[in-house]
Specification:
About 80% of the residues lie in helices and about 0% in strands. By secondary structure, it is mainly α. Helix 3 packs across helix 9 and helix 6 packs parallel to helix 8. The two termini are about 25 Å apart.
Length: about 240
């Protein structure tokens, strides 16, 4: 029952905030008794479900960032494909610390990002830079069980002039590629928990649907504060577990 509830709540967070859900799910799984590597495995499988469905819903209303999403996504897939190797050779404690550093970066960047930036259509984005960005984020994110949008969204909003809602939609699309690569890599290396991941992933679809519905009617200023609240909650949850 706890996995079902976690799936629904994680799905809502994924749809609303444009994240894979791992930032919330990994700490919660640790709190109920999973070790870090098992939590990462369940989180990645859940992301495959929620990111595909959530991106489908997002692009029904806005497909203007599809091209950039594909470029970053290909890089994320390449980077995420290395996660199984990293998970096999890096101690769990180091992964926890990397997770915390990632959340701290996200809090810092979102705090000092303007909510009104929306001139990305006039900016020239280097496709090779986007590809490299996706690759690096894919390596880091899949190794700690997050989709990557927690890193990507602040970068897109803070440095590439997307507003937060557009950045979150693009971030969730990125998760499609990185999570599939992570799922394949962890499965090959014997880390995947298929039954637990499927339960959480299937029930996350319910939450994703309602999360995106609520995001579309939320004022962007309130949206920024909600993102910060989520990141801070996750940070303290992880620090408590350590």
């Amino acid at each position: 029952m706890s996995l079902v509830l976690l799936g629904i709540v994680t799905g809502f967070i994924s749809g609303f905030f444009g994240v894979g859900g791992g930032m919330f799910l990994v700490p919660m799984l640790l709190l109920i008794g999973f070790d870090i590597k098992s939590a990462v495995a369940v989180s990645i499988m859940q992301m495959v479900f929620s990111s595909i469905y959530g991106s489908f819903l997002n692009f029904r209303t806005n497909n203007s960032i599809l091209k950039e999403g594909l470029i970053i996504g290909v890089g994320g897939f390449a980077g995420g494909s290395l996660s199984g190797i990293i998970l096999s050779n890096v101690e769990g404690e180091y992964l926890k610390y990397l997770f915390i550093v990632t959340v701290l970066f996200a809090i810092y960047k979102v705090t000092f990002t303007s909510i009104i930036q929306n001139n990305h259509k006039t900016a020239v984005h280097n496709n090779y830079l986007l590809l490299l960005l996706g690759f690096i984020i894919g390596i880091i994110a899949m190794s700690i069980g997050v989709g990557g949008s927690v890193i990507l969204t602040p970068i897109l909003a803070g440095y590439m002039y997307y507003n937060l809602k557009e950045a979150s939609s693009l971030g969730l699309f990125f998760v499609v590629f990185s999570s599939i690569a992570g799922f394949i890599s962890l499965s090959i290396n014997g880390h995947m928990l298929f039954a637990e991941g499927a339960i959480v992933g299937i029930f996350s679809l319910i939450g994703v649907y309602f999360g995106i519905k609520v995001k579309n009617i939320t004022h962007i200023k309130s949206y920024k504060y909600m993102i910060l609240a989520l990141y801070i909650f996750i940070l303290f949850s992880m620090l408590y577990k350590i």
